[in-house]
Amino acid sequence: MTTLTHLECSLCNKTFEAGKVHNLCDCGGPLLVRYDLEKAKANWNRDWLANGPTNMWRYAPVLPVSKPAAITTLGEGMTPLVRTKRIGELVGAHDLWVKDEGLNPTGSFKARGLSCAVSMAVELGIKKVAIPSAGNAASAMAAYAAAAGIEAHIYMPKDVPQSNFIECMAFGAKVTLVDGLISDCAKIVAAGKDTHGWFDVSTLKEPYRIEGKKTMGYELAEQMRWQLPDVIFYPTGGGVGLIGMWKAFDEMETLGWISSKRPKMIAVQVEGCQPVVRAYNAGEARSTFWDNAHTVASGLRVPKPLGDFLILDAVRKSGGCAIAVSDDELIDAGIELATAEGMFVAPEGSACVAALRKLLASGFLKAEEKIVIYNTGSGLKYLEAYSTRYPRTGGGEQDKLGGLITPR
Asked: Which of 35, 25, 69 is nearest to 206 (CA)?
C-alpha cells in the first residue's frame, strides 16, 4: 500500500507525523503529503497498472491510506480522455483533447478528493466531517460520508445549483444554506468545528483532498503513454486540481515514469471572480480578496483561494498563464462543445474552451500544440445556468425549434 512518510508545510517546510489528525500548519500553510518515492520506485512499476483497480486507487502506493479496509470508493477516476476534432477545428487547435471529469461519481472531479479525504477520516477514526462548498464538493462529501457511515455537515451559498442541494439532502447530510459566498461558509465551519467536534474538510485545510485530485495527473500521463501534453487548461476556483497535478508530475519524474518536460499550465477564471488572474498580471505571489464575486460557474466563485501561491508558482514555472472569460463566453462555448462533440460539460469546463480560443487568437499558443482541457463536471448539474439560452415557451402551436406544440 502507501509509501507515505510524513506531511510537510507548503510555506515553512515544517514536518508533521503521518497517521495523526492535522489541518493547517501553525504558520497557516497547507500541508502536503510526502512519500518514500525511492522505495516506491524499487517496488512498483508503471507497467503493473494495467492489473490494478479500474479507479484512482490503482495509484495506491502514492496515496495516503495505509489500511485497505478504510478505502471508501464509488468507482472514481479513470475518466475518458476524448479527442475533440470538430471543436478543435472551430477554435483552431489541431490536437485538442478533453479529460471528462463529469463522469465521476456525483458528476464532478470532486469525487477524487473526497474519496481520499473520507478514506483518511475513516482510517484516523474521525466520525464527523464538515465542509464549505460552492456545490460539487458538498455533493461528493455527502456521498462518500454516506458510503463510510460518518456524519456530514455542509454549508453552501443559498444560490447553489439545485442539483447540489438535493443530492446532499438525499445522501443524508446536515445541510445549511448561507446568505453569502463560499468564503462566508468557510468562516462558519472554522468557527464551529471545535464546538461541534467535526473535522474541517475545507479546500487545502486538510492534506488529503489534493492527493485524490493529483490522480488526474497520473491518469493523464498513463492515458497519453507517459508523454505529457504541451498545454493543460484547468478551471481554477480553489485550484487544488492544478496544484495536485503539478505535484503528481514531480512525483512521476522521481519515479522515472516521465521526463522533466512540463505542460504549460493555464489557470482559467471568470471576469466576475478572477483573483488569480489579477495576481498573475500584477506579478504578485499571492492574490487578494475579490469583492462582489459573481458567475454562473459556481465552482469558480472563490474570492481568494487558500493555495493561490501554489497555483501561481505552477503557472509561472510551467510558462503558462492565468486568463479570465465572461459568463456569456463560457455558456456559448459550452453549447458549442455540446453541439460539435456531444459533450455536455459544466460551465467551468466550457470556460476553458473560451479561454483556448483567446490564447490561440493572441498567439500565446500555437495550433499544432497538444492541448488538454479539463472539464470538471457534468453540464446536467448546471441546468439553471444553461436555461438562460433555452427558456421554455408555451401558448399553443409554434413552428419554432424548441417551442411547444399543444396537441389538438
From this structure: 25
Q: Which residues contact 30 (CB under 8 A, 6 or more apart)?
A: 9, 10, 11, 24, 204, 205, 207, 210, 306, 307, 310
CATH topology of domain 81-107+208-386: Rossmann fold (3.40.50)
Amino acid letter for position 330: L
β 128-132/151-157 pair status: parallel
pLDDT tens track for 7-53: 999 999 999 999 999 999 999 999 999 999 999 999 999 999 999 99
Q: Report, as an integer, the average pLDDT of 295-306.
A: 94
Contact in structure between 172 and 165 (CB atoms under 8 Å) = no
Nearest CA to 132 out of 72, 57, 209, 70 is that of: 209
Residue of 379, 364, 331 lying closest to 265 (CA atoms):
364
How much of the chain is in helix, strand and coil states, percent to nearest 5?
A: 45, 15, 40
Q: Could you give the C-alpha distances from 39 to 208, 247, 366, in angstroms and in order?
A: 21, 18, 40
Name the β-bridge partners of 372: 97, 232
